[in-house]
Amino acid sequence: MNKQTQINQEPTMEIRRRSFFTRQRLSAQGKIAAWCYVVATLAAVAGATALALIGSFSSDLTTFAVLVFITTLFVVSGVRWLQAGATLLGVVLFYLFFTQPYVISSLYEPKTDPQGGFGHFVGVVILFGIITLAFVANLSMVLQNFQLSSRRRWFAPTSSVIIGMVIGTLVIGALGPGASAPALAAIAPLETPQMAAGPGVPTSINMGMAHAPISVGQLHAPATAAHVDHFTLTAQSAHLALGSGITVPAWTFNGTAPGPTLHVRQGDELVVTLVNHLSFGVTIHWHGVRVPNDADGVAGVTQDAVKPGQSYIYRFIVPDAGTYWYHSHQFSYDETTNGLYGMLIVDPTTPTLHADVDESVALHAWNGANNQAIYTMNAGDGVLKQAALPGQWVRLRIVNTAETPSGNPQLVTLVGAPFQVVALDGHDLHAPQWLTATPLPIGSAQRYDIYFQMPTHGSVALVTADDGQGYVQAPALVVGQGSGPAKLPVITKWFDLTTYGTPAHDAVTPQSHFNATYNITLGNQMGTSLGRTGMTYTMNGKVFPNTGMIMVKEGQLIKLHFVNQTSLYHPMHLHGHVFTILGENGRPLTGSPVHQDTVLVPPHATYDVAFVANNPGIWMLHCHNFLHSNWGMDMMVMYNVSTPYTVGSASGNFPD
Ligand code: C2O
Ligand code: CU
Fold first, then answer.
1. Distance (Å) from CA 620 to ligand 1 centroid
2. More confident call, 19 vs 543
3. Contact present, 562 and 607 (Cβ < 8 Å)
């Protein structure tokens, strides 16, 4: 009797042991799942630790490691509903895996992925194999458990799946695109820049004068200089971790953006070897430097774009001290906005200003997920630090390398110390006044050199307002000890270069005799440009290459009268020369003389500038908002020079 009861009770115990919340021994599939998850956990933890040790902490990989660890615990717990939940976490793991830019790039370019090439690819594939195996084993274990249940056979699996789905949805929601961790949103890989094809696309345009006595190739640097600086810049792709967890795909010089800062001395000769490891043509333009024409780096005008695998040597003397930069001038819209730029700092032969700390800051905007602009200072989108001691003098050289997506200039200002603007576009201002948190409007390609003394305590911060909406906490540069500013200033009246500084003698003034004056009307309208239809940006109603040219002769003093008929800012840049600013809206400057290579013409304003034609060649005059120059706003200043190069689909050269 007693024995009979025991026998009868046996199946009941078995069922209870396998019920919803109780634990059970792992089946064979369960063991496979558990071991695979353990291996994946160890791999992810090892990877995350290694990255943290080399200083490039990855929040993505850490999240992955934590999640795969939780999944492992769920499986080994033996609790059936947790095991079912683990399958849903497995789905989240796949999601994280395949939305990770490093993984995507590695699968995309197995051999050439800049994050570690083929080794990285193999690692990605192995990790993928392990989590797939774990997931399949996990799923089959759950299904097997489902079949073994003999009581309430629908309840446990169904509720497990629902709970798992809720957890999974919450996790995806918390981590997914548009939520708190934009790092996990997929940023589209870069597309190779190329010209539109078909009607309206020029095949071969020669920008030179057909029977000119001299060709661009003859306009080169003198044979010798007292001191020669050699540099090599290699154009290559990279993925840039911006610091906050966002990684952007980029084309770079030497693997970083900005590329290496070239620091040289006035009068030095630069010999720069450009090596192209990208799959399309590139050049280097030395923005603001009065280079000989053959070193100007304009594809289709002063050279052919440097082809993949090839190299090219730029040789020029830097005649002026100051803050300059360099960028590709083949498809400059695509190539510069995606990272092919860097800074060039030229120290004066006789220093005029003492600085204990001299740093350059490149402001950039990257194309993030969902076309959201990601603003950076140098290589980071967070708070950068710059050491400086109390009482030290600091010079910051700020360049806007961005395309300025909104079309408005970026605003920058300094919080925590009064400052002077000592130079614009590298050219010193005369007796500048002290400013306090004055917003400095900086158009694409422009430079401001600011100068200040560190206070006795606390830090000083350089902050920006993108699109003029208001200053932001990041990106920012904190100089000295401490964190960013506790309180951001409000935007006050913008800096006005036409009234700043103190008057001084200048070689060119509005009273000078001009050999010629050209009116250039800046417009925008729907139209076609190079075979594309859309919003075009015009000079005198025309789009490049129909904009005509400004013919000059060596020694002439030329005045340009810009009339901006649009509601947009246009940073107008002339290659190879320096403008003297004559006035805005017909009013001459009341402060320091101002010399710039890029003048920011405000909406519905006029601007008068002049330049001495002292550098023979074929020189671009264009808006430096890359979108505008890409859609028409370019012309040439021409000295009766010919060129063997052409722009168009035949050569593949397209400067903007
Ligand atoms: Cu900064 Cu035509 O260039
Ligand atoms: Cu423009």
1. 8
2. 543
3. yes
Measured by CA distance, the residue closest to atom 1 of ligand 1 is 287
Give the Cβ contact number of residue 607 at 10 Å: 25
**Whole-angstrom distance, CA of residue 202 vs CA of residue 197:** 9
Please tell me the predicted confidence (pLDDT) of residue 112.
Answer: 47
pLDDT score of 289 = 98
Query: Tens of pLDDT along 33-67?
Result: 888 888 888 888 887 776 666 545 567 778 888 88
Query: CB within 8 A of 163, min separation 6: which ones?
Result: 81, 84, 85
542 and 548 Cβ atoms separated by less than 8 Å:
yes
Res 57: pLDDT: 58
How far, in Å, from the CA of 287 to the mean position of ligand 1?
6
Centroid of ligand 1 to alpha carbon of 619 (angstroms): 10
How far apart CA 75 and CA 69 sit, in angstroms, is 10
The more confidently predicted of residues 233 and 457 is 233
User: What average pLDDT is seen over the chain?
Assistant: 87
Give the pLDDT confidence score for residue 102 in this predicted structure: 58
Q: In this structure, which residue's CA is closest to atom 3 in ligand 1?
A: 287
Residue 545 Cα, ligand 2 centroid: separation in angstroms? 16
Tokens standing for residue 650: 């035949």
Whether 247 shows a pLDDT value over 70: the answer reads: yes
Burial class (CB in 10 A: 0-12, 13-18, 19+), 83: buried
d(CA 233, CA 462): 29
Residue among 621, 588, 624, 625 at smallest CA distance from 607: 588
Q: Write out the residues surrounding ion ligand 2, Cβ under 5 A.
A: 570, 623, 625, 628
Q: Is there a contact between 624 and 571 (Cβ–Cβ < 8 Å)?
A: yes
pLDDT of residue 309: 97
Q: Who's near 356: CB < 8 A, 6+ residues apart?
A: 388, 389, 392, 393, 394
Give CA–CA dist 344/397, Å, rounded.
10
Neighbours of 203 (CB within 10 A): 10
Higher pLDDT, 147 or 634: 634
Query: What pLDDT, on the 0 to 100 scale, is given for residue 168?
Result: 59
Question: Among residues 545, 579, 502, 539, which one has the least CA distance to residue 653?
Answer: 545
- Around ligand 1, the residues with Cβ closer than 6 Å are 285, 287, 327, 329, 445, 573, 575, 620, 622, 624
507: how many CB neighbours lie within 10 A of its CB? Answer: 11
Query: For residues 138 and 33, is the Cβ–Cβ distance under 8 A?
Result: yes
Side chain identity at residue 575, one-letter code: H
pLDDT digits (tens, 9 = 90+) for 102-154: 565 556 555 544 444 566 667 777 777 888 888 888 888 777 776 665 555 56
Q: How far apart are the first and last CA of the chain?
A: 96
For 410-446, letters b (16+ CB in 10 Å) and e give bbbbbbbbebbbbbbbbbbbeebeebebbbbbbbbbb
CA nearest to 170, candidates 299, 162, 474: 162
